[in-house]
From TrEMBL:
The keyword Protein biosynthesis applies. The keyword Protein biosynthesis applies. GO terms for molecular function: translation initiation factor activity. Keywords: Initiation factor, Protein biosynthesis. This is Eukaryotic translation initiation factor 3 subunit f.
């Protein structure tokens, strides 16, 4: 963020008055790190699901054993289901099999910036 503040000539003393969101709006920029991470997760998930080996079992969460105590961790599939839009995990698993459909879903979600 410091480079945008320098380009817009915002002094460091105005840090409390100008939030990072306001600086991004002035520069007409958006945060893209989370979107890039989700896109890479989705492409990796497509690769793993088409192979159908041990990684497939781990990412879908279908392995035997006792669940640990406390709050359950968020699964990769649940995070991608919310990122890719309204739909169930089973719909996503079916879409992974068709490579062109999966690429289109990823591209549309990336363009929307969710």
């Amino acid at each position: 963020m410091w480079f945008l503040r320098g380009m817009l000539r915002i002094p460091w003393t105005a840090k409390k008055k100008k939030t990072n969101e306001r600086v991004l709006n002035e520069a007409n920029k958006r945060r893209s790190l989370v979107r890039t991470i989700r896109k890479r997760q989705a492409t990796f998930l497509g690769h793993v699901m088409r192979r159908g080996k041990l990684e497939h079992l781990v990412t879908t969460g279908k392995f035997e054993g006792k669940r640990s105590r406390g709050r359950q961790r968020e699964k990769i599939m649940d995070g991608l289901a919310t990122w890719l839009g309204p739909g169930k995990v089973s719909d996503i698993l079916a879409a992974v099999k068709d490579r062109d459909l999966w690429r289109d879903m990823i591209a549309n979600a990336y363009k929307q910036g969710t």
